[in-house]
Amino acid sequence: MKHLTLILTLIIASPTIVWSQADVNNLNVFVDIAHGQRFWNDPANMVKSAGEDAARAQYLTNQLKATASSLSASVNYVKSEITPEVLANSNLLFIHSPSAQYSDNEVATIEQYVQQGGSLFLVLDVDYWSTLEQTNVNDIIKPFDIQFGEDSSDTLSGGYATPSVVVSEKMDVIYHGGRLLNGGTPFCFNQQSDEAFGTYKVTESGGKIIVMGDGMASLYMTEWKGVNYPSQQFMSEVIRWLLQ
Description:
alpha/beta; Rossmann fold; nine-stranded mixed sheet; two-stranded antiparallel ribbon; globular
């Protein structure tokens, strides 16, 4: 089981990236923080007294903005209900470890968004962080024949990504305990049993989806159990593909 204190220590100890916005932002990444997200938040809304939570939010924002900036994209936060108007200017909807329910209207909005060519990045880690009873993310991806399953029985650390349309070469991916996935085209696997914890799909209209059953790489963690991982490189390739 992952331990919050160790995760926060690793995240906060990592180097901070100073981000400066590109002169012209042609693309927009929208990060959902309105559904009980466990890790992501807008640091502008947090006070220093929030301690580790505020430091983590700033770190994650810096990392994602560094990735987005390299692609001439901006990062925005969704702080209320997800509606067609909210997603009108979005190229990528980023949902990471929610713990609340999405309304029927939100589920329908996200499906329509992807069916019309939008991109979705969705992460749900193990039950320790959020369960499938707490959040109905499977309703969001059901129309695309992808589903989250139960927690993996994998007990070892470490994963890898195979060359695909998403990543250009085989690379190590940080992983420790994840949620099983069904559907899509798997491209991330754990080292112990080769179970998939990352999968992707392209719709007939050109919409793109990446679903992850482990959140460590997308928390931009760079070390686990004494092993270093290229999380920024991995996330850069993932987001580049989703924004293409």
